Amino acid sequence: MIDEGVLSGDECEQLLTAIAFASFPRGRAGSRHLMSQPEVMRIARDPRMLRIAGFVLGSDPVPYRATLFEKSGVANWLVVWHQDTALPLRFQFDLPGWGPWSRKAGIVYAHAPSWALSRIVALRLHLDGSTIENGPLRILPGTHTFGVMSDGEVSNLARSRAHVECIVQRGGVMAMSPLLVHSSGKAISDAPRRVLHIEYADSLAFGPGIHLAIA
Fold this sequence. Notes:
By secondary structure, this protein is of the alpha+beta class. Helix content is 21%, strand content 30%. The strands form four sheets. A six-stranded antiparallel sheet has the order 1-11-8-13-3-2, covered by helices on one side. A four-stranded antiparallel sheet has the order 4-12-9-10. Strands 5-7-6 form a three-stranded antiparallel sheet, with no helix packed on it.
């Protein structure tokens, strides 16, 4: 689902400026764990963003993780077909369907089962317009209903199904399930594609001992 014109161009520029002057670790492809940044938290809790996330989830959404992706002619990369199945968690536990586990920047992560991932939606706020030339997101429509798949199953789907390139204007928001199979190619222009990827859940508590971490 794509909702155009959620933020104005001026709002996008203000957010980019705030992020540029903020102090946090930055990688070649962008920056993770940004919910501690005041401007990012403000946008994550903006009524316009909450409205979209709530429409998808059917409940009051809670933002818990934010990532900035920055692709350009200088910082250019491709992403293979995949699902986003790893979740940040407050504590490690031993339950069927969860794992393997890892740790990133002091936060524990586990690959989650389908029932947990179905309670999440990601909103991709486009701080630049995406075009066919700057490596836009590509999706395999309908694959969010297939549950968690193996790498081989994802590869087979990508070879057998037509993909869609998601072209979104600056200030637009794309809502997607973490189970949706997606990828992106390399940019063929120098125009930047900066996307603030904010994830929402219907609750931070998924059950006894299962609590999402704020990242």
